[in-house]
Structure formats: structure tokens, C-alpha cells
Amino acid sequence: MANKAAPDASRRSERSRRAIFDAALSLVGEVGYDKLTIEGIASRAGVGKQTIYRWWPSKAAVLLDAFTAGVDEYSTQGLPDTGDLAADLKSVLRATADEFNDPVFQAPYRALAAAGANDEELSRTFVARLMEPGTLVYVERLRAAQEAGEVAAGIDVRVAVEMLLSPFSQRWLMRTGELTYDYVDTLVDLVLRGLRPRD
Amino acid sequence: MANKAAPDASRRSERSRRAIFDAALSLVGEVGYDKLTIEGIASRAGVGKQTIYRWWPSKAAVLLDAFTAGVDEYSTQGLPDTGDLAADLKSVLRATADEFNDPVFQAPYRALAAAGANDEELSRTFVARLMEPGTLVYVERLRAAQEAGEVAAGIDVRVAVEMLLSPFSQRWLMRTGELTYDYVDTLVDLVLRGLRPRD
DNA sequence: GCATTAAGACGATACGTCTCGCCTTACCCG
DNA sequence: CGGGTAAGGCGAGACGTATCGTCTTAATGC
Predict the structure, then answer these.
(1) Which chain B residues touch A126 with a CB distance below 8 Å?
(2) Does the pLDDT value for residue B5 go beyond 90?
């Protein structure tokens, strides 16, 4: 089934790979995703086009790998658990807001989210590699809170996390509002209001 | 400041305009947004390319107008108010789920959401013309419920609506889950749990 | 030595502009 | 009013540029 005579990865140039990532990330910030071209990346990276086509199927795939490579350095540690659920969620979401407000982060992430909307396979990879890990730490934190009795027993934790993260993402992606600390706090408080056990 | 000698709208061909809309909508469903081209639209519509370039700045703008023209026929009536808030929200969100699960609806809406992520001006128009009107009816319904004492007084209704609609949109856009009636019901119940007044 | 590499030629599309007559429309004048 | 005319939109498609994805070549480096 080995389609298309897979190239020999052991002989791959790490130098070129990194140069391609750097070029892709800087170019997407400068010219935007629509005007990002494989030829442009190859040229800035000092790399032959074939080197890109050999290893990636699309510019979106290049960008996804480039972005992931940059993000993987942050190893996800799980959310803090100080015992104060609201405070923990707020502090992490505030940090995430700072990240999403950072121009360097914005261009590639927006581009990937957009490309994913029209490309089912890409969206699955995007979700699995970038969104899901970030979501899971919230799920775990909420589950811990649930076991501690801070969150009502019957609640679907997964949906609760969506209620927290989706408004945040949506606001940012569609530019329907600013991601301020105030907003984050309001959101956390309102979500938690619905999660607390009733007496 | 009239840039570029604006064309005379009074002499515009309604026939061509409609043909362009039809062609754009059917083509985006057939070949997808990435492979949708102005030339393709012009060709299928039996229209000169210049006729498209004269009236729209981009294929995204064409699609937005085409889609909006189709949707505008649904005049938004506001949400039902039977007195049972949960039931009202569930019935409308279920209908929306059906709509979002409809293939005819999916391709253009996905394409526009994606294009908006990378194009700030387009996203503002997209939000203002398609999302905001739909959001407002929820805001109004919740405000009515708030006045009726069904929703606690201090709550930011706008954020509450985001908690309801964003998880729904996000799930659909990123394909992180199915939009089932069960899901809709769970979401409505969990959101409302946080909105109810405490004794 | 052999597969990957940088460089770029290549044909195929699609871009956005332009030019060409044709045709419709707005509006003027009788 | 209502016919005539000029302006401008119209369909068609040629044009030069840009990028696509493939292919060829010679150099490189493991």
C-alpha cells in the first residue's frame, strides 16, 4: 500500500525542515494565509520546492507542523489545583487570552482554524494535535473538582468545558469581542454557577 | 474619495446577479471553497468575468451575498415564548441543528466562517449580517425570562447566550462532535442550570 | 554510491485587467 | 408621452503575471 514510494526519512535534512518552518511562520505573519505560497516559503527558506512537496501535501500541513513544532515546547502540565477552582480556571484562561492576543500567535492559528473548516482531514489533525490536549487538562481539572464535591455529580464535564472554552475561541475567531480579563472572569463565574452542587 | 469610478447600480442586470448567486452556491457545494473560482462562477452563470469583478471584491464577498440573499427569505421572528424557557431554547436549537446538518447549508457557511477568520473586514460583515441577528433573538428571549424572574437578575445575558451558542457553533465548525438533539438538550439544561435564580 | 537537496524549467490554471461589439437602460427633447 | 439617443453595463475572451504541482539536473552529504 506504500503509496508513491515514500521518501527515506532517515536521510532527511533537519536543517531544511527547520528553515521551512521558520519561513512559513514568518511569511504567514507578513502576508497572511491567502497570499502564503509554497514557492514563497521555499524561496525564503533557501530550499527547493520539491523538498516541500516531498514531505507535505499542502501549505496548511506545513503550517500545522511548523506551528506544532513551536508549541510542543510548552509541555502541557495539567491545570494548577490550588483547591480554588474558579481561581485556577481564571488564571489559566487569562494566560490563554494573552496568548491569543499575541500577533505572532494569531496569524498561523487563525489560518489553521480556517483551513480546517474547509478541509475535514486537516481539521481532525488540528483538533487532535492542538485543541484536544488543551481541552483535556480542563476536563481533568473539572473531574477532580467533581470528585472533591465542588462540582455537582451528574454533570457532563465535557460539555461544561465546551461552555467555558468555546465562547472564548468563538469570540476570538469571529472577532465578536475582546478577550479581556474581565470577560474571562465573567465567563468562568457564570459557567461555575451552573456546575456547583445544589444544597 | 469615490475610489475607482463606482459603477451605476441603476443599470445593473438583476438577471446576471441572480445567475451569479446560483452558480456560486451550487459550485461551492460541488467543488468546495478552495476550488471555487471566479472564472468558474462566471462560466456557469453565463456571465462575463468583469461583471463579477465590477460588483464584488472577492469570491468570499460573492458567496456572502449569495448566501445572505437565500437566507434573508427567512425573516427572523424572534424566539417562541411559551413560558417554558428550556423547551423554547431546545426547540429552536434543535431546528438549528437540523439546518447545520443540511449539506446544502454547510458548504457556503463553512467557507464564509473560514474566510472570515483570515479577513477581518469580511468577518465583520459575516457576523453582522448572519450571526448577530440570530444571536439577538436569544438575547431578547433571555432578557424576557430575566424580567419574568426565570433567570437571575445580575447575569450578563450576552455571555449566557455565548455559552449556549458558541459550543454549538464550535462543535460544528471544528467537527469535534455531532449536533444531536441529545447534545442540544444537555447543553440547554446545563446553561440554564447556571442562570436560574438561587433561593 | 545513492537518496536527498537546491535550483529552476515546464505546462496548466486562475488571477485581475483590458478590449471588443452588443444590448439595455435612463433620460432628454419634441 | 413616447420615441431617439448616448452612456454604460453586458458576455466573451485575449492578455500578462503568478502559482500550482511535476519533472530534470547537478551538487551535496550521509
Answers:
(1) 174
(2) no
CATH number at residue B178: 1.10.357.10
- The torsion angle over the Cα atoms of residues A135, A141, A146 and A148, rounded to 10 degrees, is 180
pLDDT level of residue A84 (50, 70, 90 thresholds): very high
Q: Is the CB of B56 under 7 A from strand D?
A: no
- Which 24-53 residues of chain A approach strand C with CB closer than 7 Å? 46-51
Any strand D atom closer than 7 Å to A17 CB: no
Which set of grid coordinates corresponds to residue A174?
469571529
8 Å CB contact between A38 and A52: yes
Expressed as residue numbers, the domain containing A35 is 13-71
The pLDDT of B110-134, averaged and rounded, is 95
Query: In angstroms, rounded to a whole number, what is the distance separating the alpha carbons of residues B19 and B45?
Result: 5
Residues A101 and A154 occupy one common structural domain: yes
DSSP code string of A76-99: -------S-HHHHHHHHHHHHHHH
Domain boundary among B44, B71, B98: B71
Asked if A141 and B89 count as a contact pair (C-beta separation under 8 A), the reply is no
Question: Per residue in A132-178, pLDDT tens?
Answer: 999 999 999 999 999 999 999 999 999 999 999 999 999 999 999 99
B136 plus B189 within the same structural domain? yes
Q: Tell whether A4 is covered by a domain.
A: no
Query: Which of B29-33, B68-72, B178-182, B187-191 comes out lowest in average pLDDT?
Result: B68-72
Domain co-membership, A33 together with A122? no
- Amino acid (1-letter code) at residue A157: V
**Taking the CB of residue A136, how many other CB atoms lie within 10 A of it?**
14
Residue B4 lies in a domain: no
Number of domains in chain B: 2
Task: Tell whether B188 and B113 lie within a shared domain.
Answer: yes
Q: Give the whole-angstrom CA distance, residue B140 versus residue B78.
A: 8
Which of B100, B102, B112 lies closest to B33, judged by CA? B112
